[in-house]
Specification:
This protein has about 650 residues and is an alpha+beta fold. Among the domains are: about 140 residues, Penicillin-binding protein 2a (Domain 2) (Alpha-Beta Complex); about 160 residues, Beta-Lactamase, CATH 3.30.450.330. It has 24 helices and 23 strands. The strands form nine sheets. The chain has a five-stranded antiparallel beta sheet, with helices on both faces. Strands 2-1-3 form a three-stranded antiparallel beta sheet, with helices on both faces. Strands 8-18-19 form a three-stranded antiparallel beta sheet, with no helix packed on it. The termini are far apart.
Length: about 650
């Protein structure tokens, strides 16, 4: 309590000495702003930056712009070598000082009436020793009101849990206006993740004690009849298994590393260092694992993160502070094809006997140029030949899905239906697909695209389900064309989703058509361990797709693994567990002759096929082909879930 610290130099020196020694308080290098020579501030600060190896611009901004405090810490936790090196600067540079942490806090908060924390998480023996010497340490209090949150399981859980931080004045005043303010000005509150989402349940209620003190502020007795015991907050039991979460994180990091190595080997300039992996129980929406890499150390935000550490996070090109599982919006690529197929089968524009011929590309003329127009290629340049829906899903035939998406209607300003040409065939072929309005209908209403999923995390993005109105009102201000629909039909162009949205959609196909709200919390327990509330699967809707059509799509996804683009990739999980899946390679950036330099690697899967208990989505940003880099990550995740041990290495000669 700064106002209660005595002015008497002997008493002050004693308190300083005891706290510095007992709490191991370190020296600091600080700048006293009112000690800087007027007009020479930049010179002094840049000279200081040169002396300590700091960026001059950053130091000037930190001292002169980023804070209004008179004392600004430049370096903390100084070693003896640091002190010996920095101490001479006091004589050379006015306003620069080496001072102890106690003196720094006392001067910085000289006019504060609220307590100032000198050190958190003090060992019990140290706290008891300070408490027993309270008579000789006026103004010093040992408080058990401020508990320190610990996150022992590491960064793998940071995006799920979030962290706690001091309540702001604005937040405190806002709670005050609502009445019955549960906070005190020195409280901490949840920041991000479940800490923020479950704040009302986790925080508990403050208690209170009425005590008698003598003239020196030393407690004499407590008025026990007026004591109000605190109420602990609830404990949240999650759907996440710690060990499985860590295995998923390891598998994803390995996939990211291999994708980066592959890009380097191929001479690509793709910057690869981030990705997402989600595992969900399709029977009830429980999240089994949710990983966004890179992650961050949430303990740093509790213990005190340095400016450098925070700036490193902000400047990291792969954005470790962003939870891409819920906030990242990406083109889904071919993983959207099962969803488009469901809609087309239901609308009758497609059936199990429908065949389209793929020669590797199609040419779509314009109204004014029957011999020109735009060419749309399939990923397989030689083409798939005549192909039906199940095989088109298994082989991920783009030309087939161009037909599934593009509508059977006349182009504006034309008397003939929308059509295309196959290489080597001069006859026009009419489109007869869904069109963007029906694609929009099924993506939104059946599979939850274009809206947050409702998981217990703040910061969910909605993604984009585009249509003509959206495109015209967007910054592009363009008119919709059949080419836009063709792109959306294979998960390219303007359509985007979050990895969690895709996970929920694929889980809906896995469980035969029920969309569940994804959730991370299984139950809340009180301080005695009794269950206060249990959260069960929350069915939001059933897809507007008949079961035979869903089964057709599921069969195609099963073929993806047995004879399609993911065949032979599940070396860890093995063949005894029936897996269904869908690969995706979502191109982005600028195209050259219809081809893109960069692409995201996707894979979705569920297993066992007949009674799925897990659905998985893997995304490696800029990771290239989904079959090459995302499928092995899903294989490792499924193997971990089903308890499969890695095969022994091959014998060496």
């Amino acid at each position: 309590m700064p106002p209660d610290i005595p002015d008497d130099s002997d008493k002050l020196n004693y308190i300083r000495e005891q706290l510095t020694k007992t709490l191991d308080l370190k020296e600091m290098l600080v700048v006293r702003r009112n000690g800087l020579p007027l007009g020479s501030e930049n010179y002094v600060l840049r000279s200081l930056a040169d002396a300590i190896g700091a960026d001059p611009t950053d130091l000037v901004e930190k001292v002169m712009i980023d804070t209004s405090d008179n004392l600004v810490p430049v370096r903390e936790q100084l070693t003896q070598a640091d002190i010996d090196r920095f101490k001479p600067l006091e004589k050379e540079l006015p306003g620069v000082h080496v001072m102890g942490q106690f003196d720094f806090l006392l001067e910085l908060h000289a006019n504060d009436v609220l307590p100032v924390t000198v050190k958190d998480d003090v060992p019990k023996a140290t706290a008891l020793m300070l408490q027993s010497n309270a008579l000789y340490l006026p103004g010093v209090q040992v408080s058990d009101q401020e508990l320190i949150r610990r996150y022992p399981d590491g960064p793998e859980f940071a995006h799920i849990l979030g962290y706690v931080g001091p309540i702001t004045q604005e937040e405190y005043e806002a709670a005050d206006k609502k009445g019955n303010n549960p906070y005190i000005p020195t409280d901490v509150v949840g920041r991000g993740g479940l800490e923020e989402a479950l704040e009302p349940y986790l925080r508990g209620d403050h208690g209170g004690r009425w005590v008698q003190t003598d003239a020196r502020g030393v407690e004499i007795a407590e008025i026990t009849s007026m004591r109000h015991d605190p109420t602990p907050g609830y404990t949240a039991v999650l759907t996440i298994d710690r060990d499985f979460q860590k295995k998923v994180a390891d598998a994803l990091q390995d996939g990211i590393n291999k994708a980066a190595e592959g890009a380097k080997k191929d001479g690509s300039d793709a910057q690869i260092g981030s990705g997402v992996a989600i595992a969900i129980n399709p029977k009830n929406g429980e999240i089994l694992a949710l990983v966004s890499l890179p992650a961050y150390d949430n303990q740093l935000f509790v213990d005190g993160i340095s400016d450098k550490q925070y700036q490193d996070y902000l400047n990291d090109p792969f954005k470790p502070l962003t939870n891409f599982a819920i906030s990242g919006e990406f083109p889904p690529g071919s993983t959207i094809k099962p969803l488009i197929a469901c809609g087309a089968l239901q609308e009758g524009t497609l059936n199990n006997d429908t065949h389209y011929y793929c020669a590797g590309s199609i040419r779509v003329p314009t109204v004014t140029d029957e011999n020109g127009g735009n060419t749309y290629v399939c990923w397989l340049e030689t083409g798939h030949g005549s192909i039906s829906i199940e095989d088109a899903l298994a082989q991920s035939c783009d030309v087939f899905f161009y037909n599934v998406g593009a509508p059977g209607q006349k182009a504006e300003g034309s008397d003939v239906p929308l059509h295309y040409f196959i290489p080597g065939d001069s006859s026009p072929h009419n489109f007869e697909g869904l069109g963007i309005d029906l694609i929009d209908k099924y993506l939104r209403n059946s599979f939850g695209f274009g809206r947050p999923t409702g998981i217990e995390l703040a910061g969910e993005a909605s993604g984009v389900v585009p249509d003509a109105k959206w495109l015209f009102q967007s910054p592009l201000h363009e008119y919709w064309s059949v080419g836009d629909t063709i792109n959306v039909s294979i998960g390219q162009g303007h359509v985007s989703c979050t990895p969690l949205q895709l996970a929920c959609a694929q889980a809906t196909i896995a469980n035969n058509g029920t969309y569940y709200r994804p959730r991370l919390v299984k139950e809340l327990r009180d301080a005695s361990g009794e269950i206060y509330r249990t959260y069960t699967g929350e069915k939001l809707w059933s897809v507007a797709v008949d079961d035979p059509h869903v089964q057709t799509v599921r069969a195609g996804m099963r073929k993806t693994v047995t004879e399609g683009t993911a065949m032979g990739k599940f070396v860890l999980t093995g063949n005894d567990i029936a897996i269904a899946g869908k690969t995706g390679t979502a191109e982005f950036g600028q195209s050259v002759d219809g081809k893109y330099k960069h692409s995201h690697a996707w894979f979705t899967a569920f297993a066992p096929f007949d009674d799925p208990e897990i659905a998985v989505v893997v995304l490696i940003e800029s990771g290239g082909e989904g079959a090459t880099y995302a499928v092995p990550v899903a294989d490792a995740i499924l193997a971990a879930h089903f308890g499969k041990t890695p095969p022994p290495p091959p014998p060496t000669a």
